[in-house]
Design a protein that fits this description.
The protein is α+β, with helices and mostly antiparallel strands and 137 residues long. The chain is built from two helices and ten strands; from the N terminus they run βββββαββαβββ. It comes from Pseudoponticoccus marisrubri.
């Protein structure tokens, strides 16, 4: 049985009906046109699979964060309870050691959402539990 998830990218712009310059053709599926004309509206981009650090960095260089991507490992500390992805991004940006972050949805690891700051960008995977982003300073 194969489970297909959709990866959503936000804070970037799409060209035509697909995410710009998206790497790794075998794992990537074209994104249908967004329902919204807002350039920051979520846009689908990937189906299930493992993403290399280069693929993650490439996506996140063009978008503020990517929904349905988990970057496991390379944690700077244990998870921090946070109310939203924006808070997680701010915590990472404030820590000069933080290269990336993963926000884990409420109810997955704890009742509240958790923020995991990363020391670098390890391989990631498409996973509906999480949203990930790069440090923005």
């Amino acid at each position: 049985m194969s489970l297909a998830l959709t990866l959503w990218v936000t804070g970037g712009h799409a060209q035509g009906n697909s995410v710009e310059d998206t790497p790794s053709g075998d794992q990537l599926q074209p994104a249908p046109p967004a329902a919204s004309s807002d350039p920051d509206a979520p846009r689908p981009g990937l189906a299930e699979g493992t993403l290399s650090p280069g693929e993650i960095t490439g996506l996140l260089a063009r978008h503020s964060h990517v929904v349905n991507v988990n970057i496991p490992g390379r944690d700077l500390q244990t998870g921090i309870p946070v109310p939203d992805t924006g808070t997680c991004a701010l915590l990472c940006a404030a820590d000069t050691r933080c290269a990336a972050w993963t926000y884990v949805n409420p109810g997955v690891q704890a009742d509240s959402a958790m923020c995991w700051k990363k020391g670098d960008v390890p391989p990631g995977r498409v996973d509906e539990c999480c949203t990930s982003g790069l440090a923005r300073r």
